[in-house]
Amino acid sequence: MSLDIASLFAEHDGERYELHNRHLNEQMVRVLKVIGYDVGFRRAKGPYLWDRDDERYLDLLSGWGVFALGRNHPGVRDALVSVLDGDLPNLVQMDVSPLAGLLAKRLLGYAPYLDRAFFANSGAEAVEAAIKFARGATGRPGIVFAGHAFHGLTYGGLSITGDDVFRKGFGPLLPGCAEVPFDDLAALERALASRDIAAFIVEPIQGKGVNIPSDGYLKAAADLCRRYGTLLVADEIQTGMGRTGRFLAVEHWGVEPDMVLLAKALSGGHVPVGAVLTRKRIFDKIFDRMDRAVVHGSTFSKNDLAMAAGLATLDAIESERLVQNAAAKGERLMAAFAEMAERYEFLKTVRGKGLMIGVEFGPPRSMSLKAAWTMLEGMNKGLFCQLITVPLFKEHKVLTQVAGHASHVVKLLPPLVISDGDCEWIERAFDAVIADSHRVPGAAWSLGKTLAGHAMKMRAGAA
After folding, report:
1. Would the keyword Transferase be found if you checked this record's keyword annotation (predicted)?
2. Are residues 118 and 260 in the same domain?
3. Residue 21 belongs to a domain
4. Tell me: the pLDDT tens digits for 295-330?
5. CA of 206: how far to CAs of 18, 92, 180, 265, 377, in Å?
6. Same domain for 122 and 217?
């Protein structure tokens, strides 16, 4: 008798928070309950989620960018079913899979200046592989990364992640890693001039804060890397697969990195997978003899489910013209937020490309609003954005995220399948919530005081 997973989910749905409190991360459950996100999602389709009361939500988080196709895409699901029904010889290990070869060929077609693909289980594993490949290919120890970068939470990735919130308490980290400010060519050249830097690893658009470089930065960074014999590695784990209105974000600036890292949306959200696309000369330095054929690898990395999901995802992106949809819908939303910024003091700017958008808030001009902002910031830096995200969720059924710890940026990372109707939903919801935040005193500021109180209690508990 086979296990009925859907029935098992339904049967134990009421225990989800108790199970996590007892066996998993109880602090995450506390966070959900404090901000009112403990609604118990039960089903999903495309860009929508439904809670225990069958209320529909618009998901602008996409599982941190994983569900670029929306959830439960039928094409990806059918591909996975066909693998299971096909009784394929999966992960023989002493053989190679045609599905892995086909996915590698398809991905390299999007970056014709690269020649080889390496598959991993996740974005973090792709980062780890890139660090190893860079050091192995160049014989150099150093890795340079940008301030505010996020490259993962494994030790290599953490060592090149520019946020102390993640790094604190886990040292010592990987030696030889140096931070330079993002979008600062002079600082980058000073770091590279030592000629012991194997790679400069950079997100074309930084996920934490949705920070966009100056137009000439990445091109000039590539030139500097070539001058000093350093490899340029583009971390496209979040920006790739059409997210920014191009298949790869580096295409906006005409840059051809030595390595491109992909993950998140690569499998349509169903099966963990990551990829490193690289130049042959780099790959051949690592796998240079038959006795080094397995010098780096990952047990599950080329499994047939992941490879099939990747192929089906590429089919959906192409057939549904999702890169073009991301560009068009992003342009519409950016224009709407720019118009709101002219009307609302707290809304400072909007930035992004495609459907990777950051809406930044900041101190207002008028004295009454400025006093409220200063009070809230004094209690907990970055708390203002929760006055936006929590009402968006509770009152307008829109799921969003703050773009980083103590950040004043609300980040939109919706599925690339969103419609004009979804854009209207987003625009109405943000307009209403931002307008409410300008009413002092008001419900939004009462919420702010409540959240600040919880934050102070949590800090006191940690102390």
Report:
1. yes
2. yes
3. no
4. 999 999 999 999 999 999 999 999 999 999 999 999
5. 36, 38, 14, 17, 24
6. yes
